[in-house]
């Protein structure tokens, strides 16, 4: 198992935002996925869509760099919503806590819509 988390449907805004404050640990060469480590040590992995690595970076443009310290809501990657909607297998985007086992006290919260901070 990769981790615990949620899946979101991206909006046509065209920008992936930092889901939490922390350090950008990794941005894939194709810019379709990234990870952030929060000051508390929570590792968050975001992967835009399904099988988007097969697009070889088309539709994505890096804004932030690995090692950058960011705040929740900072822009990290631009994406071409229309291109990805037409060419990706799915745009549903997993947001995973990869070290969830270290945080057994996390309690799920259900919500209809998430809004960037």
Automatic annotation (TrEMBL):
One molecular function GO term is: kinase activity
The record lists the membrane-crossing segments as none
Tell where it localizes. Answer: Cytoplasm
Q: Which GO terms describe its cellular component?
A: cytoplasm
| Superkingdom, natural source | Bacteria
Q: Which UniProt keywords apply?
A: Kinase, Phosphotransferase system, Sugar transport, Transferase, Transport
Q: In the UniProt record, does the keyword Transferase occur? A: yes
Q: Which residues form the PTS EIIA type-1 domain?
A: 1-99
Q: Any idea what this protein is called? A: Putative glucose-specific phosphotransferase enzyme IIA component
GO biological process assignments: phosphoenolpyruvate-dependent sugar phosphotransferase system
Q: Which InterPro entries match?
A: Dup_hybrid_motif, PTS_EIIA_1_perm, PTS_EIIA_component
- Pfam families xrefs: PTS_EIIA_1
Q: What is its main location?
A: cytoplasm
